[in-house]
Each structure stands twice: as C-alpha cells, then as structure tokens.
Amino acid sequence: MADQKIDIVNFSIGNPIEYQVPALLAAFPQADGVSVLLQFDRDMSPLASSLNPLNFTGVTGLTVGRVLPVGPFYKVVFDKTMTEGQSYTMAISRGVVSLGGLPVPANTSVNFTGKQPTTSRPIPRSTLTGLRSAKTGWKQRSR
Known about the structure:
With 143 residues, this protein is mainly beta. It has one helix at residues 125-128, and strands spanning 8-10, 15-17, 24-29, 35-40, 56-57, 64-70, 73-78, 87-92, 108-113.
C-alpha cells in the first residue's frame, strides 16, 4: 500500500492533488559528456528553488553548474567532462520538488557511469564532389 498513489480532486480548481512523493527512476549520461538526464516518475518543478545546483551533490570530481527542467527530467550540467567508465553517485536533497510541490524523499541518490563526448567526423572531400548548392546552383569541380 505504501507505493499507491491517491488522487483527490481539488474541486475549487479541478486539479488532482498529489499525495505520493516523487520517485527518481534513472539517470542517463548524455552524449555531450558533461550532462546527465535525471528521470522522475512525474513532472518536476521548474522553480528556481528546485533547480538550485546545491540540491544536487556528491558527484566525485564534478561540480553541478546548472540544472534545466525538461518535463519529467532534469538535465544536470557539470563543470567539466565526465570520465569514461567512471561510476558516479549523485545525492538529491529535499529542496527538489514535484510540480505538485512534494519533495523527493530524504537520502535520494542515483548511480550512473560517465560518458565521454561523442565527436563528429569531418565529411570526406570525396563525398562533396558533384554536390550542387541549392542557393547558388554551383557545382564543385572534381580534382
């Protein structure tokens, strides 16, 4: 019964009222190598108090620079690139709240593995041969 959600409609405005604290489901390191998406079981607050980088701590060797709301995710951006394969643990304080105003449980943390940035490769010159520009109509000469 502890993990059931009870929705009670606030009849003055017609919105459900939350009575279950938000759960942190997973962390997804991003291809940029400096950020991780934290997935919650519901939309989280976009208010500055929830997005305070000091609410996200304990990541050895990294400092949280900023936090951005993305629906049920928070994008946490670090001050430097993660180490490939390094295990990280991030603690989240009760200052982080859901859209309904309920805080995450005390001692909430998540583990993730560092990822290096994905780099793009330049397009080989041979691929560009014979292409026309849509704007000018020029065609590159073969060498």
